[in-house]
Amino acid sequence: MVTRRVVTLTEFGSPQVLSIVTEELASPGPGEVRVRQTAIGFNFIDIYQRKGIYPLPLPTGLGFEAAGVVEAVGSGVTHIRSGDRVAYMNAGVGAYADLRNVPADKLVALPDTVSDEAAATLLFKGMTAQYLLRKTHAVQAGDVLLVHSAAGGVGQILTRWATALGATVIGTTGSPRKRETALAAGCVDVIDLNDPEWPEAFLKASGGRKARVVYDAIGKDTLIKSLDCAAPFGLVVCYGASSGKAPAVDPELLNKKGCLFLTRPSVFPHNADPATFRANAADLFDAVAQGHVSVDIGGRFRLDDVVEAHVAAEERRFGGALLIAP
Hints:
The chain has helices at residues 44-51, 116-136, 153-164, 179-184, 198-205, 223-227, 251-256, 267-270, 274-289, 306-314, and strands spanning 2-8, 19-25, 32-41, 66-73, 85-88, 99-103, 108-109, 144-147, 168-173, 189-192, 211-216, 230-238, 261-263, 297-302, 321-325. It is an alpha/beta fold and 326 residues long. The protein contains 10 helices and 15 strands. It is 29% helix and 26% strand. Helix 4 (179-184) links the parallel strand 9 (168-173) and strand 10 (189-192). Helix 2 packs across helix 3 and helix 2 (116-136) crosses helix 9 (274-289).
């Protein structure tokens, strides 16, 4: 057996509930591989799970995505070999570790065009953008989109990729200092959510055109007003809850607002099938190769500094993605 260092929590709460333990790691079982992780992605769902908003059975690890190098291969694994560079985003919680056994069908091989750091900070967020742009709504040239949290990790990827597809993106941020980040990602204008009249500011920025799609990762603080920004027969996509759980919506309200469509999708069902996951990842990596998607790493933390990483994320100190290195 080998030993590993892994972040664990035994109760829900503040970042201080996180601790690092050293434990033995068994050899990879049938269908598994052991990955020496070189880069670990951070996502806001990690905070929700740490707080118990999305409760997990305790004790538990945290983290959904990482990249690294295969060290050992279990029986029955034929498409992955020791030494391969790989990444994952749907192998269950527990990515906050320096070493991990992962089911082989949850891994995707990394092309030379994608670094370990890029993969670890891009896969979960990039695959989220991929299904939002390709499956939830097939974005077309000429679409007007409203993207909340446009300076965040998913928001920047979503904006860049949608702009490359020919859409017009107007973004929002909760901090004026993030405006330039959102503009650099491709937004034609950026709305300050601290303005209580931000839906009117959006309409002014769009020249009076409402959005074909509103991408809302904020939830509680924005969803109802997001409905006011959608065009008749438009789509409001609530795919996150950074401000808290989104309020319930009476279907009759959707009728009154313009026969709107409202959906609450998730990245995991869109990538549950291994073949579909690999195809979606290939689509993402192609977008990276074409320059449509790039990674903005806003902050880097060591595994030993995981508490500080969570504090920084909750205080929204950084635009872009956060990276944890073992």
